[in-house]
Design brief:
Structural class: alpha/beta
CATH class of the largest domain: Alpha Beta
CATH topology of the largest domain: Rossmann fold
Bound molecules: nicotinamide-adenine-dinucleotide
Number of helices: 10
Shape: globular
Oligomer: single chain
């Protein structure tokens, strides 16, 4: 039986990835600094460890009886939505860099053959609406909009450097915004789709919800089941170098907000207010991801419907 280690298994995408790997027949160890908040883990073993510490990386990677893991999925990061990214710059640069530095070094020393790293399209520069798609190679010369993107770029390069010098295969995905049930929906780390679903779920007919920015920012939102399928296929593949993982549907934040309101069936207004928004526009080539025979099949409407239902239920339980 293949053994996989999922770092960040107490988080949103890591939690869903554990389920995917179990369906694929793996023995899975999950590791995180905290337990999953919204779901019981399906990992065969779940260990609480702070991966900023090298000795904890050793412990996480020690599969027992001199064995190592066949695949390591590194999704642990100190991260959140735009509010968090703009306020916790030092934590992001310090904590996520330490996790990534120690994990790739320890995995290499312990002879892990295959290592997946979760990067982000935040490594790219800002774009203007209507600009042609950026390819993976366009990440350099580098000009990320935030420190989160700079840290990801460094961690990508670090993992690739190890792969050039040692016998470890590295696979890197640059995720577009990922959303779905069982993710952070309150507390300051939530991302736009979850924050909008929460605001709409908490509102009463006739209320006005607040949306950060002027609503014109363009984004892609990728449903989590599609994302974990892409992660899995990329890790099994022989594709070296970063690969953009995201859907083909680009919408404005305003369109997203109207869609959430429509799905809720409520009559609500929108007030655009000052807040951290991030880049103006996104548009990334999916050509390399097509080599995986992968596409994100879930429409935004279908994915947001499922996410809204889940968050509305969390809101109901929190208020009961
Ligand atoms: P998440 O915050 O839900 O999961 C990250 C997990 O890492 C959390 O459970 C957290 O507790 C854990 N972690 C943080 N510090 C740790 C430490 N010191 N030791 C061990 N675990 C620690 O985030 P997510 O949305 O599931 O994102 C997973 C990965 O994907 C991250 O690397 C993130 O940067 C990347 N990513 C996510 C998105 C997205 O839209 N969600 C987009 C681009 C990239």
């Amino acid at each position: 039986m293949q053994k996989a280690l999922v770092c960040g298994a107490g988080g949103f995408i890591g939690g869903h990835l554990v389920k995917k790997l179990k369906r694929e027949g793996y023995w899975v160890r999950g590791v995180d600094v905290k337990a999953h908040e919204y779901a019981l883990t399906q990992a065969d073993e779940f260990v609480l460890l702070d991966l900023r510490e090298p000795h904890n990386c050793w412990q996480a990677l020690n599969a027992g009886a001199g064995e190592t893991f066949d695949e390591v999925y590194q999704l642990a990061a100190d991260m959140g939505g735009m509010g968090f990214i703009h306020s916790a710059e030092c934590e992001i640069m310090h904590n996520s860099a330490l996790i990534n530095i120690n994990m790739i070094d320890t995995a290499t020393r312990m002879g892990v053959p295959r290592y997946f790293f979760s990067s982000s399209v935040c490594v790219y520069r800002d774009m203007e609406p209507g600009e042609p798609a950026l390819t993976e190679a366009d990440a350099v010369p580098a000009h990320p909009d935030n420190e989160y993107g700079w840290e990801k770029l460094y961690a990508e390069r670090m993992a690739q450097t190890y792969a050039r010098h040692y016998p470890i295969q590295v696979r890197i995905a640059r995720f577009e915004n990922c959303y779905g049930p069982e993710g952070t929906w309150r507390g300051g780390r939530e991302k736009a789709p979850a924050a909008l679903c929460r605001k709409v779920a908490e509102a009463k007919d006739g209320d006005v919800i607040e949306v950060w920015g002027d609503g014109t920012a363009i984004r892609n939102f990728t449903y989590v089941d599609d994302m974990v399928e892409g992660i899995y296929r990329l890790t099994q593949s022989e594709i070296e170098g970063a690969v953009n993982l995201g859907g083909d549907e680009y919408v404005t934040v305003s369109e997203l907000a109207h869609l959430v309101i429509e799905i809720s069936g409520k009559q609500l207004g929108i007030r655009y207010v000052a807040g951290p928004v991030g880049v103006h526009s996104r548009n990334f080539s999916k050509e390399r991801s097509r080599l995986l025979n992968w596409k994100a099949p879930t429409t935004l409407r279908a994915g947001i419907s499922r996410t809204y239902q889940w968050i509305a239920e969390q809101v109901r339980q929190a208020h009961s």
